[in-house]
Amino acid sequence: MKKTLTLIMLIMAVCLIGAEINENAGEYGFKFLQIPVNPVSIALGSRGSGSQQNPAVFINQPALAAVHAHRNLSVSHSIWLEETGYSNVMYSYSDRRKHFGAFLRNLDYGEVENRDDSGTLIGEYSPVDMNMMINFAMRMTPSTYLGMNAGVVYQKLNTASAYGLSTDLGFTYLPPLMDSQLSFSLRNLGVSSKMNIERIDFPVSAEVELSKSFAFDTNSIMVGACMIKAIDEDIKSSLYGELELSDMLYLRSGYKLNYDAEDFSAGLGIRYRNVAIDYGWASFTEQLNDVHSFGITYNF
User: Fold this and answer.
1) Total Cβ atoms within 10 A of residue 271
2) What residue ranges in 232-274 does DSSP mark as E strands?
3) CA 232 from chain center: how many Å?
4) Which distant-in-sequence residues (6+ apart) come within 8 Å of 6 by Cβ?
5) Contacts of 227 (CB under 8 A, 6+ apart)
6) pLDDT per position in the chain (300 positions), as tens?
7) In the chain, helix, strand, coil percent, each to 5?
8) Per-domain residue ranges for the chain?
9) How far apart, in whole angstroms, are the C-alpha atoms of residue 150 and residue 169?
């Protein structure tokens, strides 16, 4: 156990490297890979990996989905900034020894005006951001899990396009404290083709997330915290909580720290038998519109 705890401390130290003002802002592409993918994540401070009701836990923490047994299929749609549409569909299956997941997401910008150097309108085009990936995770010891995501990314802007191969690596540890989880991930590692004459670099990030659940009667409270260090951004963090009432109603909220234009988030989920319906809202400042997200999950 001492070796495991030492490893965790080293992992957390890696996330703190480069905490000074970053000089690489704006130099990396495929930024849509950092957008929260469903209403549960959006409501829980753009994270929410500690929630057992979040079918997207393996997106941010590749090893964590293997901890609890489940099988579900989920679809969601988010009205993102400037009314862009962010849609995804995912499948997740775990028997507590291993996990397999599949995920497809698409960021739809709608029609964008195409103008020449003089500003004259010469037409319209539809940018495309797409990502398809799979996840595999497995239990290594009763308290440690390893996981990996691997996928293909495609981006098209007007007549230029690029594709890439990406991977995420994850480690989850279950501390001696009951119903707690500590996860670490390295995300968005990859290579891409050139768009026009330049190759697009991935926004690599190191992330640590800790959550703890407290049960009382037929209800429970889950609280969590996350820290993210992207290669082109300063350290960001979030705090979140979820109140479960009789395994039917889920009230969620989060707060993001050191984000340029984001702060509060909230949402709720309703589960009846095998079906869960979720809603997430996130507040944006700096004259940006708030984000609304809707999703449905079938558990079988």
Assistant:
1) 18
2) 236-245, 249-257, 262-272
3) 17
4) none
5) 12, 15, 207, 208, 209, 235, 236, 237
6) 444 444 444 444 444 444 444 454 446 788 899 999 999 999 999 989 999 999 999 999 999 999 999 999 999 999 987 778 999 999 999 999 999 999 999 998 877 777 667 777 777 777 889 999 999 999 999 999 999 999 999 988 877 888 999 999 999 999 999 999 999 999 999 999 887 778 888 999 999 999 999 998 889 999 999 999 999 889 999 999 999 999 899 999 999 999 888 899 999 999 999 999 999 999 988 677 899 999 999 999
7) 10, 55, 30
8) 27-299
9) 9
What CATH number is given for 27-299 in this structure? 2.40.160.60
Contact predicate 232/203, CB 8 Å: yes
**Is residue 59 within 8 Å of 46, Cβ to Cβ?**
no
Q: Which residue's entry shows tokens 């291993």?
A: 98
Q: Are 189 and 202 in contact (CB under 8 A)?
A: yes
32, 229 in Cβ contact below 8 A? no
Look at residue 64 and give its three-state secondary structure.
Answer: helix
DSSP 8-state assignment for residue 16: H
Contacts of 198 (CB under 8 A, 6+ apart): none
Could you tell me where the DSSP H helices lie in the chain?
2-16, 39-43, 57-60
CA distance 221 to 241: 7
The rounded distance, in Å, linking the Cα atoms of 171 and 8 is 9
Residues 6+ apart with CB under 8 A from 234: 19, 21, 22, 258
- Other beta carbons within 10 Å of 27: 12
* Residue in this structure with the two tokens 């640590």, named with its chain if needed: 208
pTM for the predicted model, two decimal places? 0.86
* Residues whose CB is less than 8 angstroms from the CB of residue 51 and which lie 6 or more positions away in sequence, other chains included: 40, 44, 57, 211, 222, 242, 250, 252
User: Strands 205-216 and 275-284, how do they pair?
Assistant: unpaired
Identity at 127, one-letter amino acid code:
P
